[in-house]
Structure formats: structure tokens, C-alpha cells
């Protein structure tokens, strides 16, 4: 999930990495100025693939100063004369394969000239040192870095990386991560993956070290810095669980913990439908100041607002479903966002049925009836909503309706087989809506173009609700509000109200 913010690429072109091989050859050229995403054409950079980021930083909360080094391991996919990284902070030095490189910065692009050819297929090490105040950086008037009274939150979608580490900032280029941040004693740092340890430093600071061993996209890589109560345990499946709760949650404290502490239980429930949990750790972070929840890999972050009316396991079920749909299998392009949000929203309906607060059919019936035919809700196309509507409520609710229509058409066996095959086939990679439709047709043996065209790509309210025949046979009142609906509605309003 996420918000607005898009890095605007400057005049400098984006390029790729590779081994220095002396003077530039005639074949060497800059890489593409972006990966080519139709919503954000300049997002990411062409010409190289990153395998690992080592982010080693120091952060001073009192003045919002972030300094340190990011080391990038990559492989060139073409002969390159220079390359780009997406980054906003002030850079001090850049080295490529241990040699000093020249660089320029413009419009959120760090353009690196290695002073030689980077040969196709070669391994490259890029070391970037920097020192700046992230909260002073903005794109089109928006700052994704969130300064708090006790620290800062690097959490957002589709863009957060450029505010704290240089990267190839697009979901199609995943990597493993080591994130190490030193802060004054008494301040906590939470990130993805496993906590490999903390180290006391002689200057009265403590270094927190986190490691992600499975491929991870850039926007789901985060740090939450501040005053936290950190709880560590082990899940029934043997995975480390780290939950963190901002100090001073006040009246939200009990409800937040009663929801997020159930993370292993909810994961165990969801992997029955989606396949084995794909990552090496579990957990969650609750804090104020973000205004949304986000599916950061292994450790979603939740704003306190989700717990203002008591426990809310629906938002936990939603964000944890993203561990499969969005994190393990990422969008190939941002227009494929339905593959994230529609699926996570449907997981809420499955959880609702599991806890006895409304079946998936009842939630589908109620959602279909909730929006009249003349509602603007039906004008947003989940299959291609446009950049401005990526996180519109229709992507969530109409997206979930699409999945229930598919389930009703092909039956439970084919439907859940499709979900499990999807997460297995594309694990740790990325995929598109067209690929999902193809798989659903292959598994079910049915031609499904009409169904997906109607629910994903056609404006207007479909004439028939998903599973209408089943609802009539069961004599269900389509306007009966499931007990879960208020929590789900509230969750989706917070997720899709523009504050992501």
C-alpha cells in the first residue's frame, strides 16, 4: 500500500553497473533513463540488476541528520559508460569497484561516471557515502521521510528509498539487504528481517543490525527509529517474531497489542490458502505519524488510528496477505496494483469467515449493494486505475469482488489452487495481471476473458453480483451487513483515503 510521491528524474540519464574495463568502448552507452513503468516512466534505472544492499548509517534524532554508507552489489546487463541511482540526499563520494568515480545529482537522480566501461555481465561494487537531513528533501512538494518527536519513520509507497539510501527504485529489481543504523543509547531501530544483534559503541550510541535474506523490493524496505517497546518471541513454526510498539500509545496500547501479537496465528491461517509463508521472520510495528499501514516485508507498520475502536485483526490480515501478494510476488508494473490490494482485501473476507463475523459471500453481497450504479466507485478500473487512483477504494473493494467472481465461476478447488500456484510460480519475483489471468484459465480449464474484462477493465456496475446464485440458494439477504464490515470499511478508508 502506499501513497503518492514519485521521484522525478532530472535531465541526467539512468544507466547500469558493471566491471571497469578501461576506456569506454564504442559499444558502451548509458543505460535507459528508467525501467519503463507506464505510470512512472523514470522510476528505477535500466542496464543493471542489484543483488544486495548493505546500508550502514548513523542517525541523530535531535537534528534529523542521516550519514553513512550504502554499498551496492550489482551485475551489468549491458556495456555501460555511466549509470544512475535514485537518490535525494547530498552525496559526498562514490566509488565503483574501488575507484573514485565522478558524479552529479539532479532531480532525485544520482548520475555516476565510473571513468571507464562497465562490461556487460560483470559484477560491480558501488560505494556511496552521504550526509544530509532527509526531512528537508521533497519531490513535487512531498516528503516521504517522516520526522517524529523521538526519531523518524522511513515508510511509504511507491517511494521511500530515495530519502535514505541510493537504489534501483522499482519492484522489479529485488535484492537482499543488511540494514545497520547507529543511534544514541535509549533509541530503538526497527527494520526488516532478522535482528542479528545490537552493538554498544564507545560514543554512547548503539548500533542495530537487521538482515533480510530473501529478495526484497525497495519500497517495502523500511526503518522505524524512536522510542519503542520491542517484544521478541518465536512463532509456532520456529521463526523469530519481533513486534515493536511506540512508547506512549496510551489508550491504543491494549488494542494494538491484542491485534498485532496474533501475527503468527494469522500467518498460519493464511498459508493454508496462499502456500507456505515465504520469509525468514515475522512481526509488526505500531506507531503514530504515518496515517496508513504498509506491508513492509516481514514486518508491516500500522498507524495507531487502526485501533481507535478496539482490536483490528482485519488490517493485520490485510498486511500479512501482502507478504505473499506484493512482497514475495511483486507487481511487474504499478498498473498491476490490483494483484496487491485486491488480494489482500479478499484475505480480510476469508479471515472474517474464519472468525465467524461474516462469510466471504456475505461480504461480497454487501459490498456489491453498498455502491449504487451511478457511484463514481464503478468508474475506477482496478486492472488499470491510473497513477492518480492506484490506491482508490475501488482497487480494494472492486478488486476483492473480482476475486469472488472468479471463485464463484471456477469453484473453490480451482480458485485456491490458482492462488497457491501463483505464489509458488512467481515467488521472490514479479508478475502481471495478464499472467494471473493466464494461470487462472490454465488451472480452471475455462476461458475467463469476459469475467476479467467486466470486473477489472469496464466502467459501470456489473449487472450481476459475484456468486448471486449461491446467495439466492442459501436465502441470504444481500443487504445484511456482516459483523466484520465496519472494521473492514474503516480499514479500507484509512488505507485508501490518500494518506495511505
Could you give a quick summary of the protein structure above?
The chain is α+β, with helices and mostly antiparallel strands. It has a domain at 329-495: Orthogonal Bundle (Neutral Protease, domain 2). It has helices spanning 253-260, 263-274, 313-321, 338-354, 360-370, 393-410, 412-425, 433-444, 449-456, 468-473, 485-495; strands at 19-20, 48-60, 65-76, 83-86, 91-96, 99-100, 102-106, 109-113, 118-119, 123-132, 146-147, 152-154, 175-184, 188-190, 194-200, 205-216, 223-226, 228-234, 240-246, 282-287, 293-294, 301-303, 329-331, 429-431.
Task: Provide the descriptors you would attach to this structure in a database record.
500 residues, alpha+beta, Neutral Protease, domain 2, 8-stranded mixed β-sheet, 5-stranded mixed β-sheet, 24 strands, disordered N terminus
- Per CATH, which architecture of the domain at 329-495? Orthogonal Bundle
- Shape descriptor reads globular
In terms of DSSP E residues, the strand content is 25-35%
Could you tell me the number of beta strands?
24
Task: Look at the structure and give the mean pLDDT.
Answer: 91
CATH topology of the domain at 329-495: Neutral Protease, domain 2
Cα-based radius of gyration, to the nearest Å? 23 Å
